[in-house]
Amino acid sequence: MPRRLVQDVRTRWNSTYYMMESLIAQKRALCAYSAEHDLPATLCARQWGLLEKIVAALAPFEELTREVSSSWSSASDVIPIVCVLKRVLSRRNESDEGIRTMKITLLEAVNRRFKDVESEPLYAVATLLDPRYKDRYFTSVEISNQAKAALIVEVRKMEEVFKRSTSDSSEPAEGTSCESAAVEPASKTPRMETASHSRLESIFDEILKESSVEPAPQLTTSSACIEVQTYLSEPTIQRSDNPLLYWQVNQPRLPTLVCTAAKFLCAPSTSVESERLFSTASIIIDERRSRLTAEKAEMLIFLKKNLPLMLK
Q: Quick one: pLDDT at residue 173?
């Protein structure tokens, strides 16, 4: 199969990465072609080496961008991914010769753009409710305690909903059941199948081993808050495991937390997936398809989106 060089697109940073990656993949052919045709502008050995170092430095960005942009990504992935990215960029070694300034600039940009991400309740609570991460990826104890306080507030709200529903009738009101709120988990997803092959998996494990589990302060004796303290004191599951399957299994033991997790773990980490849906709809719904009904359009969009996953 013939291979082609990738064209750089100014509006997509990862196209620059793919362009340089394709250049390195075709290095031997390009050098032979430039020597045969006596091209005036060619890359020397030092420039090729620098290009390889740049690609290696940008590889974590490309991998993590694909991860948070996937259809199975959750808001709980954001804080751990930012933590891992900072760890990778802050490391210094001899192979950084020529790109040290670049890595420092990238680290400063990441710190500036994501400085408030751990203070966002959506991302903080979602991270705590993901059994793969819990409170192990927060940068300080103070931020971790703030996230736990926000989680307890959400759990108390869910507990109040349960109390009102049981006081109004003997059976829970519609929509308050964890079975109706939870998402039916798949045993495996593409993200979970490839997690063990990630080049950054060792960094995730390294941060987990360094994190010390501190017992949360006993703020109250309510059953919901005891659930939170019990859950956080337990070890995390493997990153390749399904967090929704974990909550399905632990529903009888942690009923209030299950409903809270269903609320936060369903939140996507980025708007990429919704933008893909609009792009899919724009391809299917066209002026020349004037007789296409809304029902048929929804069916085609559903098949376009889900059929590749069903066939795997």
A: 45
How big is the CA angle at 79 (ends 137 and 239), to the nearest 5 degrees? Answer: 65
For tokens 């006993």, what's the residue? 218
- 84: nearest Cα among 192, 190, 235, 201: 201
pTM comes to 0.80
CA distance 190 to 240: 10
What is the distance between the alpha carbons of residues 121 and 125, in angstroms, rounded to a whole number?
6
Local structure of residue 267 (DSSP, 8 states): S
Tokens representing 82 are 């930012």
* Tokens linked to 158: 């869910």
d(CA 211, CA 137): 8
Count CB neighbours of 35 within 10 A.
Answer: 10
Q: What is the largest CA-CA distance in the chain?
A: 86
* Helix extents (H) in the chain: 13-25, 27-37, 45-68, 78-90, 100-113, 121-129, 141-168, 178-181, 190-195, 201-210, 223-233, 243-249, 255-264, 272-284, 294-310
Q: What is the pLDDT of residue 85?
A: 93
Nearest to 122 by CA among 159, 77, 87: 77
* Helix ranges restricted to H, 69-184: 78-90, 100-113, 121-129, 141-168, 178-181
- Confidence at 180, pLDDT banded by 50, 70, 90: very low
The token pair that represents 60 in the structure block: 């974590």
